[in-house]
Amino acid sequence: MHGTFDKNIRKDGASAPFYLPQADECDLFEAAHDNNLPLLLKGPTGCGKTRFVSHMAAKLGKKLYTVACHDDLSAADLIGRYLLKGGETVWVDGPLTRAVREGAICYLDEVVEARKDVTVVLHPLTDDRRILPIDRTGEELEAAPGFMLVASYNPGYQNILKTLKPSTRQRFLAMEFNFPAFDEEVQIVMQESGIGKDRAALLVRLAGKLRALKGQDLEEGISTRLIVYAATMIEKGMPVERAVQSAMIEPLTDDEDVKLGLNDLVAAVI
Ligand code: ADP
């Protein structure tokens, strides 16, 4: 488990992935970075958190290690482990350790999904000690200048067991993300898929109607990511109805009755 390392980074940020700001989040990120403070991004899936972090890393000319957390992810996956290599046992740093040594950014996506032992590791790193104890090697690593921990989670999930404990969340600066406003989302969909303005606006309008059903028939509102998928398929020549069905209806629910209701809604909009 090594996480992904974003090589697409230049010091001047010229190749920064496209990100359309919603408010002052870029300034806040930069301030957190400059002041050695960890940052927590809260928001629904597919609303731009990961894109924001890769954009900011590139803009600041920083290496970025991204780890998609899952329920089997343990502290050892982040810190590192001894591995057998050619008959020898060698220590291999995990993505968090590498980021700490190099003064890079480590982004833990959906951190609440990870096993409980992960939070224990994060505590000494997220207060003014900024250290990472590595029990297996006896090392106590002090974070290199520039190291920044960013974590995200989705507070919308129903599972109350999977929320961050106050003792953990109160170590982070936090900001809330939501789906972009209408005009911004249209712009994002156009930029990401190449689709024209009228069609992008149609899809975003439809998404607005689907989002209004959150909490009634749907657990989560439709993500910007799915609108981009639909737009991309349409731009590649797929009929609008089919693209909407596969990108904006099927991923939302398995319930046949709910699907029928959503289809009626789609028919009324497109
Ligand atoms: P999250 O990490 O919140 O689950 P992502 O960052 O992966 O979501 O966003 C999903 C997709 O939505 C991105 O790949 C991008 O196409 C699009 N997107 C969402 N918000 C923005 C934004 N503000 N600027 C540019 N693209 C965005």
TrEMBL record:
Keywords: ATP-binding, Nucleotide-binding. One of its GO terms (molecular function) is ATP binding. SUPFAM superfamilies: P-loop containing nucleoside triphosphate hydrolases. Residues 38-172 form the ATPase dynein-related AAA domain. It comes from the Bacteria. The keyword Transport does not apply. Gene3D superfamilies: P-loop containing nucleotide triphosphate hydrolases. Residues 185-269 form the CbbQ/NirQ/NorQ C-terminal domain. PANTHER family: DENITRIFICATION REGULATORY PROTEIN NIRQ, MOXR FAMILY PROTEIN. Belongs to the CbbQ/NirQ/NorQ/GpvN family. This is Protein NorQ.
